[in-house]
Design brief:
Blueprint: H1 5-27, E1 32-36, E2 46-55, E3 74-83, E4 88-91, E5 96-98, E6 109-124, E7 130-133, E8 150-151, E9 155-159, E10 164-168, E11 171-172, E12 185-191, H2 193-199, E13 204-210, E14 225-229, E15 252-253, E16 258-259, H3 261-276, E17 285-290, E18 303-304, E19 308-309, H4 310-325, E20 335-340, H5 342-353, E21 361-364, E22 387-389, E23 394-396, E24 398-401, E25 407-410, H6 411-421, H7 430-438, H8 460-470, H9 472-478, H10 480-487, E26 491-496, H11 504-516, E27 525-529, H12 544-547, H13 551-566
Parallel strand pairs: 1-10, 14-17, 14-20, 20-21, 21-26, 26-27
Antiparallel strand pairs: 1-4, 2-3, 2-6, 3-5, 6-7, 6-8, 6-9, 8-11, 12-13, 13-17, 15-16, 18-19, 22-23, 24-25
Length: 578
Amino acid sequence: MRRTPIVLACSALAALLAFQGAAQREIRRGPVFSITLPAGKASQPLDGRLLLLLSTDPKDEPRFQISDGPNTQIVYGVDVEAWKPGSAVPVDAAAFGYPVRSLADLKPGEYTVQALLDKYETFRRSDGHTVKLPMDRGEGRQWNRAPGNLYSKHTKLSVQADSRISLVLDQEIPPIPEPKDTKYVKHIRIQSELLTKFWGRPMYLGAHVLVPEGFDSHPEARYPLVVFHGHFPADFGGFRTEPPDPNLKPDYSERFQLAGYNRIQQQEAYDFYKTWTGPNFPRMLIVEIQHANPFYDDSYAVNSANLGPYGDAIMKELIPHIEKKFRGIGQGWARFTYGGSTGGWEALAVQLLYPDEFNGCFAACPDPIDFRAYTVVDIYKDKNAYFLDGAHKRVPRPGKRDYLGHVSATLQDMNYYELALGTKSRSGQQWDIWEAVYSPVGPDGYPKRIFDKLTGDIDRKVAEHWRENYDLRHIAERDWAKLGPKVRGKIHIYCGDMDNYYLNNAVYLMEDFLKKTKNPPADAEVAYGDRAEHCWNGDPKLPNAISRLRYNTMYVPRILKRIEASAPPGADLKSWRY
């Protein structure tokens, strides 16, 4: 076909535009980092998430400066598979970054630079899926502290758009020493048959057990047991047998705007020791569980398609082992549970899912207990988790606030932070663990997304699975005819009405149900802290900074009253009351 002058001109213009576009893409390529895995640091190819970290804050290593808040530094992540020792992997503009989306958008300047490999292991699970995940190695699934993870020395460099920078993973995070037993704090670790079968490799559960004063001198005593749920504990927290260290350099708590908060914590821990060993304090066992797993620092203490039967493993293997070893009474009327945040959700969940095995739960600032208020998202009705859409406007949904409502992160911010740290729900962070616990398994063996991590679009089918299996308000209402008589008078929920993560929204919905149910009545307690943030736990007289350190001294006396009012005839109410 013969071309007219107009056609030729259009072709020339198109070619010019294509050339300019290619040139612009070349300009926007940004710096490229070449990360080397030394031959001496691995005996075989490695899988994992390779993280490039950049910081303009000289206070610490970049690996300790990544968060979802406004003071975060910068991270870029790429998945690596079968990375051969002695070779290098490039990290360039294609890597997903947070909060600067691409290296092509990075401002030129001086940065402290570091790289880290979060190692993955291969699991051949009993459900037939083979997955690659980071395994806890005693640190509570923290990528920046996990023993065995490789990283580079942090180096201050000039980073320009055309920079080509090499880093070497020549450092390795060392093992973490095991905590040692003391007179009052004992440590146990057992291999779980249920979890080992599911994961296709040895899996363990641990616990820190606080034994009462007089435990050794009263061998005839049998004790009530309290499970204090919460995030991964390196040791039993908030218990100190010595006065505060007079040489301790006071720190500053940004969260509570308190100088010397570390000293306050030590004093509270010492005060608890004195109360615990005092003549009138109830003698019980208090247990903090270690159940870190490939997805998070704890399992949420329930059975899960992606995590395995952690609920049954804790209830059928770990707790009976503890009660046998430390002379627990071993009956439901003498078991209680409490916790805050993740631990608050767990406390309420195990009370509802194992109603005969506990005689009361104290759930403080629980993670969303009604998914109509999945923080600020209704996963059953909303179309998008990140934005409230109107005809002509998109409003970003808030993710974190202070008690005055000032927003420091959006839901998109929080999830992009996680997506930089790991794909396929492998970041080890909050939104990914909710997904890992609550979702069905996807075709690739990883959790099905409740919403698209890039766009925020919600998957309604996944939401239905969440509702029937993990929406605690829905489960309570659906099963109340059978469940109600078993949990009447056992449920206590506390939350600040300005919770940083909007967790009070779901508590309101649960409260509505607990108030209206009549057959039988719930006889539940729900209370709110005025202008209180996360994690208010039911004390209206003390500020959050103090009350959060007093879970044990707050709840144990209330547990004693419940035991005295509800223990069955013939129950042992004497051997442990010395």
